[in-house]
Amino acid sequence: MSTSRKLGPDLTVAPFDAAAGGWGSVRSVAKSLVQSRVPFSGPRVLLKQNKTDGFMCASCAWAKPADPRVFEFCENGAKATTWEITQKRVTPDFFARHTVAELNGWDDFQLEDAGRLTHPMRFDAASDKYVPVSWDEAFAEIGRELQALEPDNAVFYASGRASLETAFMYGLLARAYGTNNLPDSSNMCHETTSVALPESIGVPVGTCTLEDFTRTDCILFFGQNVGTSSPRMLHELQEAVKRGVPIVTFNPLRERGLVEFTNPQSPGEMLVSPPTPISSQYHQVRAGGDLAAIMGIAKALFALDARSASGAPAIDHAFIREHCAGWEPWAEAVKACKWSDIEQRSGLSRGALEAAAYVYAHAKATVFIYGMGLTQHVKGVQTVQALVNLALMRGSIGRPGAGICPVRGHSNVQGQRTVGITEKPEMVPADKIKQLFDIDVPAKKGVNTVEACEKIIDGSVRAMIMLGGNLVRAVPEHCLVVPAWRKLRLTVQILTKLNRSALEHGEVSFILPCLGRTEIDHQASGPQAVSMEDSTGCMHGSKGQVRPASPHLLSEPKIVAEIAKATVPGRGTIPWDEWVADYGKVRDAIAETYPEIFHNFNARMWQPGGFHRPISARERIWKTRSGKANFITPKAMTEDIDTPPEARDVVQLITLRSNGQFNTTIYNYDDRFRGIYGSREVVLMHRNDIDRLGLREGMLVTLATAVDDGVDRRVGGLRVVAYDIPEGCIGGYYPECNPLIPLWHHEEKAKTPAAKSIPVRVHAGG
Ligand SMILES: Nc1nc2c(c(=O)[nH]1)N[C@H]1C(S)=C(S)[C@@H](COP(=O)(O)OP(=O)(O)OC[C@H]3O[C@@H](n4cnc5c(=O)[nH]c(N)nc54)[C@H](O)[C@@H]3O)O[C@H]1N2
Ligand SMILES: Nc1nc2c(c(=O)[nH]1)N[C@H]1C(S)=C(S)[C@@H](COP(=O)(O)OP(=O)(O)OC[C@H]3O[C@@H](n4cnc5c(=O)[nH]c(N)nc54)[C@H](O)[C@@H]3O)O[C@H]1N2
Ligand SMILES: [Mo]
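^ thats the input. predicted complex w/ molybdenum atom below
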C-alpha cells in the first residue's frame, strides 16, 4: 500500500484503499451541506430526492426504482442538490462589485460557489459589468436581436437537464423561428450511441430496464465510472454480485466504484460487513483499445464454439440465422484478426481476453454497460456497434436479463432527444407539428455542438441562446472558440449559477436566472410539476420542494415562452401563455405529438418507477433498414489517431471527471476515489513513462498536443502524479485539459469530441 505524498503546495496524493460508498460518502455529503451553507431543511429535502412524490435528481440519469430506498440519492446527487439549495447568492450588488475582467480571473469553482443568481442581468460595456435589467426589457431586446438575424445564424443549445416540457417548447421555439440549430450536450457524450444503435438494432437508446439487472447472470462493463458518474447504479451491481453474477470490467484506470462498494445507506453493512467486490475480472485496457478487445473476445468465442460441439454452443447460430444480417463479413473479419495485433492495440493479453470470453460464453443473459470510454473516440460508433455484435453473437438482446445499456449523462439528456431537441429534422414528426401547431419544421439540417463551434469560429453563427450548460469550458479547442465567442453579437445564458460562458460574453449579453428542479414552481394554475426520461427509457414526474432562491427567478418554460412571444409573435398556433399557466397542457401536446410514447402522459407520469417508452429491440423487432439486427463490421481496429511507433514520446491523454465535479461545475478540488486532494492541475502517469520521459513525480510539466496542423495547443502548470494507468496513456482533468483537444478530433460520424484519446507530448517545466 503506498503512503500519502505531498507533491506540491496544494497537492496531496493519498491512495484511497477503502470501498466506494461507506463512511467516506456520508462524511462527504455532510461536508457539502456545510460548504454550500445549506438551510436546516436541507437533509429533509434529500429525502424527497428521486421519490414518486418528490423531485428527480438533477445529477445523473440513472433509473429511479418503483420501490425507492429511504435515501434514494447518492453522494454526488446530494452534492448536486446542496449546490442548488445553497443560501449563497449572486445579486446585482455582487455584479456591481466585480467587473467581468475581474471575474474572468476566478476559476470554475469560485464562480459557481459564489451562489445562486437572483436577477436578470445585461452586460454593460461602458463599466465592464453586468447590470440589472427587467425581464420585459430583456425579452424584448432578445426578440429584436433574433429578428434581425437569419434564423440559421442563431443557435439554440440545450444542456441535458431541462425537463421534457421545457425541451419540447424550446424545440418548437427554434423551429417556429426557422432553424434546426438545436445542438445539445448529448452531442458531446452519447451522440455516438444515437448514431450507432439505430443502424445496428433500430433503436436510439439502450434496451435494458432495472428488471434486467435482477435477472442477468453476467455483466460486461466498458468505460463508465459508476462510482462517480452514476453511483446509484452500484446498488443494482451490488445486488447482482451478491447473486453471484460476474462483472467483467474494461477500464484503463482501476476505478474504486468498479473495484468494491459498501452501501452507505445500510448502517449494518457499514459497521460489520466487508465491502462487496464489484468486478470479478478487471482489464486495464489501453485508451482506445476496446475495439481490439471486443474483437479478441469475439475471436475467443469462435474457438469456444468450435470446441463445444456436444455441449451448449458459445455462439447462438439459431438466433443469428433468424434475426441478423451481416454475419459473414463480421465472422471473417474476426477470424482474420491476429492475436498479436489485438494484444498490442488493447494492451491486454490473449489469456485475459479468453478469460472474459469464457465467462460470457457460460452466461445465459448478459448486460453490456458502457459510457464515455467507448463513445468519446474517433471510431466510437464502430466500437459501440462492435459491442452490439458481441451481444448479438449470443442473442443477448431482447431477452430478460440481457441487453445493451449505455449509461446516459445528464438527468434528461435522453428525453430531450425524444421530444425534439435535435439538429436532424428527420428525427421529428414534421407533419404532426404542422398539423397541431401550424409550424413548418425547416428541411435543412441544423448544427450539432462541434458544427456550432466551427461556425462560431468562422463568424457565421451570430447568436447563442443557451438553455443551461457552460459551452466555452465544455467544448474542445479553447484557443479558437473563446476569442470567437467574444465576437458573437448575442449571447443569452439561462442559468442557475454564474459560469465562464456568461463572462466570455457577446456584444449584447444577458444572464437569465431560472428556477432549479428542487424549487417550487408556482404558475397561474398552482404549483407545477415537470418530467424527465432516465437512462432506461422510463418517464418520471418531478415536483419542486423548496422556496425559490429569489422571487425574481422565472421557470425555464416561462423563459422559453417569453423568448418565443418576443421573437416570433403570432407564428404558429401555440398557446404559450396557457402552457406556462399549466404545464399539464404542454404534456397533452407532447402526448398528441408522440402518442406511441406519451399517451395519457399526465396520468402515467406519477406511476411508481415511471412509465416505459416502447423499445422495439426489446421485443426483437428490428426497425433497421434490413429489418434485421445488423452485424456492422469495423473497418480496422484503430479507434483514434494512429501514432507511428517511432513517436515514442507521444502518449494518449484521457480526460477525466473527478469525484468532486459535475461536468464544468467543480464542487471541490478533491478526487477522493483516486486519492488526489487539493488540486486538479495534475497529470496521472505510469511510473515507467515518468522514468522513460526523464520526468519525476511532483514535477511541473506542460502538455502539448502532438498533431501537426499549425495550431499550438498547450496546457501548463500540471504536476506529475505516479498512477496505476497503462503505459502510453496519461490522465488529466476535464475541462482543464480541453484546450488540448483539436475541434476536428471527434467521432467521425457522430461528431462527439474524442476526449478519451488525445495524442500529446509531456514537456518538463510548467
Ligand atoms: N458526479 C458526476 N456525475 C456525472 C457527471 C459528472 O461530471 N460528475 N457527468 C454526467 C455526464 S453529462 C455524463 S456524459 C456521464 C459521464 O460518465 P462516464 O461515462 O462515466 O464518463 P467519464 O467519467 O468521462 O469516463 C468514464 C470512464 O471511462 C474510462 N475510460 C477512458 N478512456 C477509456 C477507453 O478508451 N476505454 C475504456 N474502456 N474506458 C476508458 C475512464 O477511466 C473513466 O472511468 O456522467 C454523468 N454523471
Ligand atoms: N475533455 C472533455 N470534455 C468534455 C467531456 C469529457 O468527458 N471530456 N464531457 C462532455 C460532456 S459528456 C458534457 S455533457 C459536457 C457538459 O458540460 P457543461 O456544459 O459544463 O455541463 P452542464 O452541467 O450542462 O452545465 C453547467 C451549468 O449549467 C447551469 N445549470 C445548473 N442547473 C441548471 C438548471 O436547472 N437550469 C439551467 N438552465 N441551468 C442550470 C449552471 O449554471 C452550470 O454553470 O461537457 C463535455 N466536455
Ligand atoms: Mo454528458
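The longest strand covers residues 714-722.
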